Amino acid sequence: MSKNILRILGFFAVGMTGGIFGQQVLWPYFVERPFFEKYGLSQPVYVTEIKEVIIQENVALENAIEKNEKIVVGIKTKTPNGEILEGSGLIVTSDGLIITLADLVPKGSAFYFFVEQKPVSYQILKRDLENNLALIKLEKTSLPTASFADLDKIKLGQRVFLVGAIFEGSTTQSSVNEGIIKNFDENSINTYIVEKNTLSGSTLFNIEGEVLGINTINPEGIIITIPISIIKTFTGL
């Protein structure tokens, strides 16, 4: 009886070894021979793990976008010379504090702030023209907020996305874009994302949905993000 078991185990070990040898040595050898090229044979490619990682990242991205759409405020401004400015702001406290670009709320202009497509009363608290930031208090409470990212953990090539508000007639809707971090320092975060200037003041998030900063857009459409560290210093949060 024990001899039969040993014989079966021996056959199993030989078969498994032969299978590994054939897959790893013989198959690659034969498919590279000229005779077999015309049959289009190729080595097996294993992509299951890569697909799984991509799917997990995409699901995380979709969830983060859905979670943070409502913390972005639409801003429309009419300047004294009649110019119309459109952009976004970020809710930073549940009792109505928002941060945006000082460029979007120049003094002497008429401002309109929209939360979930509805206009909200406001008060301009302060502007920092050097860092291009403005702090506004909306007359609305129980607002959703997002966590701030730890910039010490930021990495080159990290996947990021932006969320901003764009205007369609008299209503707003969310607009998103994604990319990776190109380079960064204590004063700015640069990505490969290119956008229209109507998304000035949009928010940059990491894939966990944490705030990295507020976006400015230069004339070439390149996004340069004011890091959350500067924003926290400005707001005192």
Textual characterization of the structure:
- With 237 residues, the protein is α+β, with helices and mostly antiparallel strands.
- The chain folds into three domains: 2-45, no CATH class; 64-69 and 144-235, Thrombin, subunit H (Beta Barrel), CATH 2.40.10.10; 72-138, Thrombin, subunit H, CATH 2.40.10.
- Helix content is 27%, strand content 37%.
- It is built from four helices and 13 strands.
- The strands form two sheets. A seven-stranded antiparallel beta sheet has the order 5-4-1-2-3-7-6, with helices on one face. Strands 8-9-10-13-12-11 form a six-stranded antiparallel β-barrel.
- Strand 9 and strand 10 form a beta hairpin.
**By CATH's scheme, which homologous superfamily of the largest domain applies?**
Trypsin-like serine proteases
Helix count, DSSP H or I runs of 4 or more residues: 4
Encode the helix/strand succession as letters.
HHHEEEEEEEEEEEEEH
Total domains, how many?
3
Which consecutive residue ranges, at least 5 long each, have pLDDT under 50? none
Percent range for helical residues?
Answer: 25-40%
Overall strand count: 13
Note the topology.
Layout: H1 2-31, H2 34-37, H3 48-68, E1 72-78, E2 84-91, E3 97-100, E4 110-115, E5 118-120, E6 122-128, E7 133-138, E8 159-168, E9 171-184, E10 189-194, E11 203-206, E12 211-217, E13 222-227, H4 228-235
Antiparallel strand pairs: 1-2, 1-4, 2-3, 3-7, 4-5, 6-7, 8-9, 8-11, 9-10, 10-13, 11-12, 12-13
